[in-house]
Amino acid sequence: VLSQTVTGNFAKVIHGLNANQLTDQVIQRSKRMILDTLGVGLLGTSTEVCQKATQYSKLYSSDLSSTIWGHLDFRLPPLYAAFVNGVAVHSMDFDDTWHPATHPSGAVLPAVIALSEAVPQKKKISGLDLLLAFNVGIEVQGRLLHFSREARNIPKR
C-alpha cells in the first residue's frame, strides 16, 4: 500500500499542509525570501544566459500564459515562464542557499508564481495560498535533500 512507503508518508504529510499551519514567523521569513528572490531575479534578467533562455522560449505559445519578470509586455506558457524566471534568479547566484547546498527559493518561486498566474480568473488564489504553495515547495525540497545521501556529501567533494 502506497501510504506505508516512505514516498506515501511523504506525500501524505505534504498533502496535509494548510495555511493555518503557517506561523507568523514563517510568513515573515517567507515574505523576505520572496522579496529577495524577486530582486535577484529582476537583476538576473539582464544576464546573457537569461536573454538566451528568453529567446529560446519565444518558440512556445499557449492559451495559458505567465509573466516574464522585467518584461510587462511579454508572456510565455507557465512552464517556460518558470524556466526563464528561474534562470534569471540563478544566473546571478545571489539567491538564498542552505545546507546541504541548494537554492530553495530560486527553484520554487518562479514555478509558484507562473502557476498562480495561469489559474483562471474566477479561481484566483490568495496571497496566503501563494505563501502556502511556496512553503510546501521549500518543504518538499528540504525533505528530498534530507533523504539524499548525495546531498549530504556535497561539502566533502
Automatic annotation (TrEMBL):
Q: Which GO terms describe its biological process?
A: defense response
Instruction: Show the Pfam families listed in the entry.
Output: MmgE_PrpD_N
What positions does the domain MmgE/PrpD N-terminal occupy? 9-151
Under the heading InterPro entries, the entry gives: MmgE/PrpD_sf, MmgE/PrpD_sf_1, MmgE_PrpD, MmgE_PrpD_N
Recorded GO molecular functions are: aconitate decarboxylase activity
This protein's superkingdom? Eukaryota
Instruction: Give the record's GO CC terms.
Output: mitochondrion
Which family is this sequence assigned to? Belongs to the PrpD family.
Write the protein's name.
Answer: IRG1 decarboxylase
Q: Which gene encodes it?
A: Acod1_1
